[in-house]
Amino acid sequence: MNSKMTRRSRVAAILAAATMLVLAFQTVDAATVKFGAKLAAGQYPDNAYSGTLCDHEVDGGSGTYACTWVLNQAFNGGTATAPKNGFINKVKIVNGAAGSFKLVIARKNASGQFKVLRKSTSVSYTKDNCPEPFNCSVHTYSIPSLQISTGDYIGIQTSRTSMLNCNSGGSRTALFTPILTAGGSYTTPTAYSGCFLLLTAVNSS
């Protein structure tokens, strides 16, 4: 009897250990997905505090039409693309003037074209009265979950935004006008902006 009980105890212990191992792997798999700009308190929307029009970035104009802005290079050593599959349910931003945007999940092909896979409902953000040139806060906003896959990009749809750091040139943000529709085909950027998007996507589950 004691021998049988001992064997049963050993089997139970092994099963319990295996269960804990499976749960541990599930916990690792559900770890936070975070990519985009590397944001921190004290940063500033350089040369964009009052907001910058998409048209200004496209051709120097003052039109108020909406664009799709896709983060092509990440600010402050961040990661431009999703590191793993998952779902995005929060965004973090640094901004000056108030505004609104729709978050987009985009994909890039080998030819440098992008397409939008899905987009969020509108996100409104309030003005940050941070004194120049630093001391802005990082603000977090919840969104309905959006599925992402490894290598996907994030961006926004809006006509004007202060979520930018514009301190030099380059191809940091891909711009599209008219806006890209979710589920559409791959499209060549209308132009590139030298401004970084101060935007981070987060899965906090």
Short descriptors:
17% helix, single chain, 2 helices, 6-stranded antiparallel sheet, 205 residues, alpha+beta
Proportion of residues in helical segments: 10-25%
Q: What number of structural domains do the residues give? A: 2
Oligomer: single chain
Look at the structure and give the mean pLDDT.
87
Task: Please outline the major beta sheet.
Answer: 6 strands, antiparallel
Tally of helical runs: 2
The string of secondary-structure elements, in order, is: HEEHEEEEEEEEEEEE
Low-confidence runs (pLDDT<50, min 5 residues)? 11-29
| Overall 3D form | globular
Largest sheet, spatial ordering of strands:
6-5-8-3-11-12
Number of strands: 14
Give the C-alpha Rg: 22 Å
Question: Distance between termini?
Answer: 47 Å
Structural category:
alpha+beta
Please indicate the percent range of residues in DSSP E strands (runs of 2 or more). 35-45%
Could you write a compact summary of the structure shown?
The chain contains two helices and 14 strands; from the N terminus they run H-E-E-H-E-E-E-E-E-E-E-E-E-E-E-E. It is of the alpha+beta class.
Structural account:
With 205 residues, this protein is α+β, with helices and mostly antiparallel strands. The chain folds into two domains: 1-30; 32-203, no CATH class. Helix content is 17%, strand content 37%. A hairpin with a 5-residue loop joins strand 5 (99-108) and strand 6. The longest helix is centred in the first third of the chain and has 28 residues, at 2-29.
